[in-house]
Amino acid sequence: MKYLVLLTVLCIINTTVYAQHQNKDSIKIKENKKKIYSNEEDNYIKEWFNSEIESMELSEKVKLEYYDILLKYTDSMSQYGKENKVFNKEEVKTGLNTIVDKMNSKLKPLLTESQYQQHVNNFKTILWNISLRKGWEY
């Protein structure tokens, strides 16, 4: 289950966030299939993310709920923009941040304050890394 969540997060990163520029400001998300991470980097991110979740010391019940919420919203991220719309990079970042904010609002009551802060920091790290790879300001 853990690796399924991690794989889903990475698939989202690979299919949604980093799209090819069609012109100076516009990108077509649907057409983007290019990965920005190598297989080794994907594996490292999976291991890192899994380690971070394990260090949160979630109970089994909370861990299952955490993964369910995470999967729901990461799936939303992967579906973002698949309606063949053209977005500029600011619209992509805004849309994905909106989904992350909704996910965080569902996770906050489930986690302790320190667990929630760790979750937020983990996602910030992932989003920062994607932004860095895409040449976006974060």
In whole angstroms, the N-to-C terminal distance is 30 Å
Strand residues, percent: under 5%
Low-confidence stretches: 2-7, 16-33
Helix-strand string: HEHHEHH
Q: Kindly state the percentage of residues in helix.
A: 55-70%
Overall morphology = globular
Describe the largest sheet: 2 strands, antiparallel
Tally the helices: 5
Keywords: Signal
In short:
68% of the residues lie in helices and 4% in strands.
Detailed description of the structure:
- Keywords: Signal.
- The protein is mainly α and 138 residues long.
- It has one domain.
- It has five helices and two strands.
- It has a two-stranded antiparallel ribbon.
- Helix 1 runs parallel beside helix 3.
- The radius of gyration is 15 Å and the shape is globular.
Provide key terms for this protein.
138 residues, mainly alpha, 5 helices, 2 strands, disordered N terminus, signal
Topology of helices and strands:
Blueprint: H1 2-17, E1 26-28, H2 39-55, H3 60-79, E2 86-88, H4 89-107, H5 113-134
Antiparallel strand pairs: 1-2
Helix pairs in contact: 1-2, 1-3, 3-4
